[in-house]
What we know:
The protein has 266 residues and is α/β, with parallel strands linked by helices. 43% of the residues lie in helices and 12% in strands. It is built from 10 helices and 8 strands. Strand 4, helix 4 and strand 5 form a beta-alpha-beta unit. Helix 1 (21-33) crosses helix 2 (55-71) and helix 2 (55-71) packs parallel to helix 3 (83-91). It starts with a strand and ends with a helix.
Amino acid sequence: xxxxxNVTPDSFxxxxxxxxxxxxxxxxxxxxxxxxxxxxxxxxxxxxxALRIDEAEELRxxxxxxxxLVAEGVVVSVDTMRAAVAAQALAAGASIINDVSGGRADPAxxxxxxxxxxxxxxxxxREHSDVMQQHTHYDDIVADICAELGExxxxxxxxxxxxxxxxxxxxxxxxxxxxxxxxxxxxxxxFVQMGFPLLVAAxxxxxxxxxxxxxxxxxxxxxxxxxxxxxxxxxxxxxxxxCIRVHDPAPSADAVRVAARLGREG
Length: 266
């Protein structure tokens, strides 16, 4: 279970809540207490429409939080698309790189992962957040994502990344419509069959808010989507996902236990 600490002012779910480093560290510790096995620290929002920040600002946001969490014994992943940020985060004690661009935004990321032997999450990605929803055409969404994600994996391996250190993520919400997200979720087994650990990140995302919209058409508020997130977690765990990325680990941790127990009856 991967808990989320967004050290950003503009993330869709909790932007601005954890900007102060000490507050962010306390929140990360609380996530572990609530069932997270590791904490994902990110300093740049990747919500639809978000614009990029510069490298110096990203480093200013994440490094004190990573150092603080590691000092408390927390396993940390760094959510970044920049190789330089990943390198400094690993030097500060982070254990895993979570690159939502899957190595495409900054190809040097592959070299950082290869040289440090750090596990790396490669997410299916087509374009940056400000234009990604202009790139939602697929001939066969599951087959196309598997093929494109396979290209990202191949590029990482060619750069020297150990295949055993690669995790894949189908990228729910990134260059995908709400309906396409549901199709991806219905076929998680095909991503598991790629042969790499699978990370699923559905937590509180817009397509859940759309599903749970009120009679007036208003989306279910972000902070009232955790039950739906836990339902997705159950399905993902049953499909064989390795890790679930969530904002509130407690209900999803329970969901994983349910799926694991039922799995023992199979």
